[in-house]
Design goal:
The protein is an alpha+beta fold and 293 residues long. The protein has three domains: 89 residues, Pseudouridine synthase (2-Layer Sandwich), CATH 3.30.2350; 130 residues, 2-Layer Sandwich (Pseudouridine synthase), CATH 3.30.2350.10; 59 residues, Archaeosine Trna-guanine Transglycosylase, Chain: A, domain 4 (Roll), CATH 2.30.130. Strands 1, 2, 3, 4, 7, 10, 11, 12 and 13 form a nine-stranded mixed β-sheet that branches. It has a five-stranded mixed β-sheet with strand order 14-16-17-18-15. The chain is globular.
């Protein structure tokens, strides 16, 4: 069984918990996720099954969209509602214009420091384990991109945000930093991932729905084929002679038209339409990055 699953992760489960549950449901050990969600969070968790585990890194790189609830005036050690309260502040309620002005400083390419309570490893040890022991040190900031942040609702102290961003963004950190910019502190009170790449919440399956499809003998319908999962990458048909070269891992010439596509990765298809490889455009040639056959 090979393909990609779009699972609607429930609150209270870790991403690894979901992976283990899917392994049991499908009776398939080769299952992996393409970017974690915190236990509190819900929404789109893209899982790769069987041979599709080879494309996890490419799916993980896709844009993300979130619905977040930020609570003003309260800071916690985990930066979310599950943490220990560090401080509660009294403040004059801001208006939407003030909040929006603070938000603008976080749009674009920014440096963001992962939270101490995260899975980022320090000398091979997850940072959250060190944090629980009181041994955590500030993690190195990383460059991420936030494309847009919109306020969908506001009733003090709760601000509902719609965030579109690159991979690697911690919405917990974003809420905390917006709270700091406003001068009153804040934490993440709720989070739903509504999109990862081209996988959206409205087509995500619950674990119970997946279980039901397996019982009904229609589990294959839950899986997105590998080629379809990579639709964000342009498709290039190649000749029989080029197919032989690609299947041996050799580079082929790059059509001039590819320079205008704005993508550094493309899908290569044989004359019969079979997906052969993901190739990277490098110095005017196509170099296979991942060969499927």
């Amino acid at each position: 069984m090979d393909g990609v699953l779009n699972i609607n992760k429930p609150s209270g489960m870790t991403s690894h918990d979901v992976v283990e549950r899917v392994r049991r449901i499908l009776r398939e050990r080769r299952v992996g996720h393409t970017g974690t969600l915190d236990p509190m969070a819900t929404g789109v968790l893209v899982l790769c099954v069987g041979k599709a585990t080879r494309i996890a890194q490419y799916l993980e790189a896709g844009e993300k969209e979130y619905k977040a609830v930020m609570k003003l005036g309260v800071t916690t050690d985990t930066l979310d509602a599950e943490g220990r309260i560090l401080e509660t502040k009294s403040y004059p309620p801001p208006d939407r214009i003030t909040i929006n002005e603070a938000i603008q400083g976080f749009i674009g390419s920014i440096m963001q420091r992962p939270p101490a309570y995260s899975a980022v490893k320090v000398a091979g040890v997850p940072s959250y384990k060190l944090a629980r022991e009181g041994k955590a040190e500030p993690l190195k900031p990383r460059q991420v991109t936030i494309f847009s942040i919109d306020i969908s609702a506001f009733e003090d102290p709760l601000v509902n945000l719609l965030v579109r961003c690159s991979k690697g963004v911690y919405i917990r950190t974003l809420c905390s930093e917006i709270g700091t910019a406003l001068g009153m502190g804040a934490h993440l009170a709720g989070l739903e991932r509504t999109r990862s790449g081209h996988f959206r919440i409205d087509s995500a399956l619950t674990l119970d729905q997946l279980q039901g499809m397996v019982i009904a003998g229609s589990a294959a319908k839950a899986l997105t084929p590998i080629d379809d999962a990579l639709l964000t990458f342009p498709s290039i048909p190649i000749s029989e002679a080029e197919t032989v070269r690609v299947l041996h891992g050799n580079q082929i010439s790059c059509p001039t038209s590819l320079a205008e596509m704005g993508s550094d990765l493309v899908r290569l298809h044989s004359p019969s339409g079979t997906l052969l490889a993901l190739a990277r455009i490098v110095a005017g040639v196509l170099k296979p990055d991942l060969v499927f056959t």
